[in-house]
Specification:
By secondary structure, the protein is α+β, with helices and mostly antiparallel strands. It has 2 domains: about 5-75 and about 210-250, no CATH class; about 80-205, no CATH class. About 25% of the residues lie in helices and about 35% in strands. The protein contains 2 helices and 19 strands. The strands form 7 sheets. Strands 5, 6, 9, 10, 14 and 17 form a 6-stranded antiparallel beta sheet that branches.
């Protein structure tokens, strides 16, 4: 197979994987706390030609290689919900939740209280405080969450001020090592969680997705058009080969 076909095929394979990334971003444009993925590309130079009749840059065959993706941890816009259990994190911190697979991390602060009185995520995972799960009493009301994560309530008819815990907020020296696991959760992977005292909690807000829907839609159109252009180029190359073979096969009468 000629180099032009190989180069075009390598680009189409990369475009297909890039489309998967863009489509996933668009699908999560309304997912609270979602962090967009971005594709990484690099040039791959094939080993130089082995024949001596190629000179200069004709020896280098340049392919495209998608070396992976990286996560965009830029903070998304905050939306006021006025729900006292909703929280948004100002800063690079993550909430810690307990799942069946162990501790996981999220920026989705849409919280609620389950039937056992535990503070949980929308998926039902327990939100962890500095001393474990945060549990409310049936008589608790007027929940207040301070900027440092301290949770206090007024208890009973006597309106006694009581503390129910403190949200455990952590950060990572290299957040790119975090692994996405679905359901808007991250696992630590090779990263190490450390207490985050710099981030601040905003009660009654949730952080929206940081996906730029207009930019992602434009990128999707760009990827589609590029894929089509390369497909046309490959078809033209195939037609040239077919024409050349047919003409070379003609035997003069």
């Amino acid at each position: 197979m000629e180099n032009s076909l190989l180069v075009g095929l390598s680009r189409q394979m990369v475009l297909e994987r890039q489309m998967d990334v863009v489509a996933n971003n668009i699908a999560n444009v309304n997912t609270s706390g979602f962090k967009a993925d971005k594709s990484l590309f690099q040039e791959y130079l094939k080993t130089g030609a082995h024949e001596d009749n190629f000179v200069g840059r004709d020896r280098a065959v340049s392919f495209v290689l998608d070396s992976g993706t990286f996560k965009d941890f830029a903070q998304g816009p905050s939306e006021q919900t006025k729900n006292p259990l909703d929280v948004a994190i100002d800063g690079g911190g993550f909430l810690v939740v307990q799942t069946a697979a162990g501790e996981r991390y999220t920026r989705d602060g849409g919280l609620q209280i389950n039937n056992q009185g535990q503070l949980v995520t929308a998926a039902g995972d327990a939100v962890l405080g500095t001393s474990g799960p945060i549990v409310f009493q049936p008589t608790d009301h007027d929940v207040s969450i301070a900027a440092d994560g301290n949770i206090s309530v007024l208890e009973g008819v006597n309106r006694i001020d009581s503390v129910r815990g403190k949200l455990r907020v952590v950060s990572f020296a290299d957040a790119q090592k975090l692994l996405k696991e679905g359901s808007n959760l991250f696992s630590a992977g090779a990263a190490a969680a450390q207490p985050d005292t710099a981030s601040k909690i905003r009660q009654g807000f949730v952080e929206k997705s940081n996906v730029n829907s207009v930019a992602e839609m434009s990128r999707m159109i760009e990827v589609t058009r590029t894929y089509t252009q390369i497909a046309n180029m490959l078809q033209q190359q195939s037609d040239l080969h077919k024409s050349a073979i047919e003409k070379l096969a003609d035997v003069p009468a």
